[in-house]
């Protein structure tokens, strides 16, 4: 716990430095915290061999963060370790050796010509953003890591008020096993069925809105597999937590369409077949929509 | 199911081609099937949002496969999607953009000098092995994928008898939810506790030894968190399945020591502090030990 507290203090300080160095130049472009990627894990043992995870690759968050950066935001990207990252997401890491060539003397390594155009395009954008120090990446794995980071981030961003956007695109575990109920050692398999009882993870959005970052522009996500439930669950979340936006999507169609729910309005955002064919990503449209809403929010007088 | 059967047929054919093309030149160096990496997943819903996973990064399998390849084996590397891979494992994929440089005209990408020596060393070995077509990689994710691949691999390797080694380093799920008991849609979180009942996954080693590849040299692994149980569980597995070797290890010390259990003998293999400091990996010693045992096995008359 002490180690985690120290780590949080370091992170809090990193957040603070980012916030301080970017506040002036950015005016209404806030700091976007991107809570993204591969979901959180729930250990099933203290000396964790097994855990519950979810399917999330972090695709939504990684793509969105890139568009927020291109739109001028500073982004603190909290991500699941090993999940997709902005810029890196365009490449298949498990094949990069295939894109390198060795000269005849076996003394030098170069990048093969066919991959240079794409690499150059992404690398230049990545370097620009890194040189401007507008991009910080921090990892989490378990749901506990995530919740601690969320709180540290929110408290750090409190100082820039409405200029902050909290983009809660992470697939946070809904169920977990409290520390006191975790078995110490690896659960032994004896051929018999195993029953596991999981408790609900407390929802943090309420705390974010009420206490930790009450002025921030807060965007949460709803993922359903059953499209009949989507609108009701999205509106329900907004109603319950009283934050700014819920972005709703159905598992099978999440890369092609989303709904954007605000109080009193539901917008559909989609990619046409033609756009899909041209490589347009839905996050381009989603981020554009949210950045405009965030700008308006910054200009409103606080009630 | 039809798609999976077609895929299996294709894989079976790939295996067959590998086996055919390497049998002669390799004599007693068999085909090593490396069943490695990140463990298998157990979906918790049909339209799977959540699943049970395990901690395994595939480090043991990826390192071992590299040493088997260096020792002259042909390796069919069945691995969890996204897990560590031979050769690639030496690099941190989430930082590769940092190792590239752009020229002043912003027209060309090159590899930075400081990383060239290490890259060159690994790349040359990787290219040699690829050019000799001794290395095939195949992915799995769920425990079902894995079991199907295991069976296809074992049946394909049947033809080279004792020359085949099955290296079962995968962290296979012990528990799963049968298809008929899986909920269709994403389990809704309502604030109430959730109880999940899991059945034991049938152990395949018995089928491998009895039916699928009775002549192959079969190596299985035992991982425990409680070192008091290690020897008993390792010997128990060998006794139960009557295969060739059990490699036992304890979670916390698995990179520094293992036990190698054969009928009638238990050997300890370890890395000294000095060796650790020099970057010696335990898989170097483990693979050397097993390759020697496999050679002896090939020379023995079949009972």
TrEMBL record, chains A, B:
Coiled coil: none
InterPro entries named in the record: CoaB-like_sf, DNA/pantothenate-metab_flavo_C
Domain (DNA/pantothenate metabolism flavoprotein C-terminal) ranges: 161-255
Domain of life: Eukaryota
Family designation: Belongs to the PPC synthetase family.
PANTHER family: CORNICHON-RELATED
Name of the protein in question: Phosphopantothenate--cysteine ligase-like
Organism: Priapulus caudatus
Gene that encodes it: LOC106806880
């Amino acid at each position: 716990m002490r180690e985690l507290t120290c780590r949080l203090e370091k992170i809090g300080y990193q957040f603070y430095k980012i916030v301080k160095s970017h506040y002036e130049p950015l005016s209404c472009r806030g700091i976007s915290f991107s809570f993204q990627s591969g979901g959180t894990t729930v250990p099933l043992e203290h000396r964790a061999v097994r855990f519950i995870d979810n399917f999330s690759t972090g695709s939504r968050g990684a793509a969105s963060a890139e568009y927020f950066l291109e739109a001028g935001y500073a982004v603190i990207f909290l991500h699941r370790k090993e999940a997709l990252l902005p810029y890196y997401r365009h490449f298949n890491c498990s094949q990069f050796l295939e894109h390198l060539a060795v000269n005849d003397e076996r003394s030098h390594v170069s990048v093969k010509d066919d991959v240079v155009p794409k690499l150059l395009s992404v690398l230049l954008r990545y370097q620009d953003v890194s040189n401007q120090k507008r991009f910080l990446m921090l990892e989490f794995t378990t749901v506990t890591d995530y919740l601690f980071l969320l709180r540290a981030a929110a408290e750090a961003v409190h100082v820039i008020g409405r200029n902050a956007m909290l983009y809660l695109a992470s697939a946070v575990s809904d169920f977990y096993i409290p520390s006191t109920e975790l078995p110490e050692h690896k659960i032994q398999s004896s051929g018999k069925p195993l029953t596991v009882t999981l408790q609900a993870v407390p929802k943090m959005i309420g705390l974010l809105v009420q206490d930790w970052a009450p002025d921030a522009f807060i965007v949460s996500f709803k993922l359903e597999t059953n499209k009949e439930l989507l609108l009701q669950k999205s509106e329900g979340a907004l109603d319950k937590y009283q934050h700014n936006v819920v972005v709703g999507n159905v598992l099978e169609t999440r890369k092609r369409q989303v709904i954007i729910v605000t109080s009193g309005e539901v917008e559909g955002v989609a990619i046409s077949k033609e756009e899909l064919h041209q490589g347009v990503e839905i996050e381009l449209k989603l981020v554009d929509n949210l950045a405009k809403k965030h700008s308006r929010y910054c200009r409103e007088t606080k009630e």
